[in-house]
Structure formats: structure tokens, C-alpha cells
Amino acid sequence: MQTEVFSELFPLLAAANPETLDWLLSVATEHEYPSGRAVLMEDAWGNAVYFVVSGWVKVRRHSGTGEDVSTLAILGRGDFFGEMAILDESPRSTDVIALSNVRLMSISAQRFIQTLFKDPQLHHRMLQLMVRRLRQTNFRFQLRHQPPAIKLVNTLVSLGENYGQTSGSGVDIFNIPAKDLADVSDISTEETSKILEKLNSKGWIQINPDQQVIHLVNLKQLMQLATKKP
């Protein structure tokens, strides 16, 4: 991967100087996983930072005996994970699973921390993105009393804005299973399926299971619905 492509793909690295990017590329390890494969297990957090080159993953939380599993987040191309475990070194009850075929690049914890100390621009950019994630978490908390449709549409809009690919049908995201969308949106799987069917029938989204894609046909219209007051 060329340095320019590396920088453009990952917002975290946009502020890094060229020498930093060259060095990170030289020490990065590439990984490929099929759909359904565990990308990062509970006991492996803190070893490296992972960058999503292509595909989609979900971060899951385990409760109790491990049988109760819920999806905390869905990440796509250009995002990263594992940085918090490096910084606070605390144990995690979460894992990361590939939703689709996925390509990742990992950088070991020691080398990533060294890079943060050497490049203050990268350090500052990482702090900005971590604050942004906290704001997104706070926004999701503020939605807790909103109707299920508002919650789900907000999730779809967020995925479209962060990871969507523009096509002739609008903005495309992966056809994420209803259970995972439900967990992230804090609604039931049954509610999620019904709302998706209604959005599809209205022509606001188009679900293409053969290509494993959800077309967000009119993202602006969905954004208006997401901010609609009950």
C-alpha cells in the first residue's frame, strides 16, 4: 500500500508526517479473515492497534457466562480499534468478529505508542477521534427514549456517513444482520426487521441480499427522519 493511499484511507493518519506514515507501513502486518471469523479475542486486547482496510467487523460484549453476547459497535473501512486497550491496559470482556470478508493491518502496541510520542500531530489527531467517539456514545445515550424507528435510522445514517460507498443507488453499506443492528440501536430484533421492511417498501432503502448490500437510496431523507421529533 502506498503512503498516500494509507493516509487517505484512515482519518487517524491524515495529520501524520510522511516519515511517520512510511515507518508505520514498514512495521504493519496484514491480515485477511472470512465472514464469521474471530478477528480479536478477549485475551488479545492490548497487543496491537488494528486498521480496517476493507470489509466490516462488529465489536461484541460478553456478559455472565459468555452465552449472553451483544454487539456494541459496527466498524467499516477506514476505522481502527484496539487503541483504548493499549492506553489503559485493562482486561476486556469483548471480542471482534468479521461481518464480511475483511482485510486488516495491525501495528504492535509498543511501536504504536512509540509513534505517538514521536509525532505530536498524530497524538493530537488520535485524541480528537477519541473525543468524537465519546460524543457519539453520548448521543446514542440521548436517543434511549426515542421511538425504535428513530434509533434504527440514526444507526443507518451513521454507518452511511462513516463507511458508506456512493453508488448509482445512493450510499451503500453492508447488509448487516438485523440482530446486530438491533443491538447497536438498542431495540429488539423484531422491531428492527419490521422497520427495515417498512423503509424498504417506502423506497427509502433497498435491501439486496444477493450482493449483501443495503442501499441508502436517499441519505438526506433518512437524516431528516433521524432528527424528527416524536
From TrEMBL:
Residues 12-133 form the Cyclic nucleotide-binding domain. Signal peptide: none annotated. It comes from the Bacteria. It holds the Pfam family HTH_Crp_2. Keywords: DNA-binding, Transcription, Transcription regulation. One of its GO terms (cellular component) is cytosol. GO terms for molecular function: DNA binding; DNA-binding transcription factor activity. PANTHER family: CRP FAMILY TRANSCRIPTIONAL REGULATORY PROTEIN, HTH-TYPE TRANSCRIPTIONAL REGULATOR ARCR. This is Cyclic nucleotide-binding protein. It comes from Leptolyngbya boryana NIES-2135. The lineage of its organism: Bacteria, Bacillati, Cyanobacteriota, Cyanophyceae, Leptolyngbyales.
